[in-house]
Amino acid sequence: MVIHLKKLNLFNPKKLSLSNPIIRYAQNPILAPNQVNAVWQKPKWQVVTVHNAGVTTLGDETIMLFRSHLRCGISVLGLARSKNGVDNWKIHPAPVLKPATENDDFAPNADIDQLIQNESGGVEDPRIMKFGDEYAITYSAYHGAVKNRVRVSLAFTKDFIHFTRFGPVLDRDMR
Question: Which residues does residue 82 pair with via DSSP β-bridges, in sequence order?
Fold first, then answer.
């Protein structure tokens, strides 16, 4: 990320300190709902929010998994790619991680029915970590029928398009 900041003339070590470890980008937001809605044109994919993203690099691109709330209230994760991590985001044509269905890929021994129920209220707040040639994504999975049932869940990907779901990392509600 420092390389991207230097290219954009945003890296100023004099402004960074332990008590001020973040530089706010003056042109925030770097991705907004109107940009997503211009790409996700199906009425069912129209969003009201874009926020709380997880970011990493893949090759020479910055990858952003962003949280969006659809107009129906369900939350999904979208994918955007940028060369510099600040602008010219290329948005994938549909959400990449939605509440699970039987058609998704699951880890061996995953309790598929329970996993589908656990995500029925939406998926949110991705965090990304690279392991070898794969990326682990943790995210909040919301149960659609049980109030305040939120489970931190895990999925793996190599390309940010195809995900293998492992389900909750703990058998504990996080709310």
Answer: 62
Length of the chain in terms of residues written = 175
> How far is 168 from 52, CA to CA, in rounded Å?
20
Contact 123, 68 (CB under 8 A): no
Query: Which of 2.40.160.40, 2.115.10.20, 3.65.10.10, 3.90.550.10 would CATH assign to domain 2-168?
Result: 2.115.10.20
Q: Is the pTM of this model over 0.85?
A: yes
Q: Which helix (H) or strand (E) is 3 found in, with range?
A: helix 2-7
Q: Is the dihedral of CA 134, 156, 21, 78 positive or negative?
A: positive
Which helix H or strand E contains 37, and what residues bound it? helix 33-39
Token pair belonging to 63:
């990858």
**pLDDT tens-digit readout, 116-168:** 999 999 999 999 999 999 999 999 999 999 988 999 999 999 999 999 999 99
SS3 165: strand
Beta pairing, strands 163-168 & 105-106: parallel
Helix and strand counts by DSSP (H, E) for the chain: 3, 9
For the chain, the domains span 2-168
Q: Pick from 55, 48, 13, 47: which is nearest to 30 by CA?
A: 55
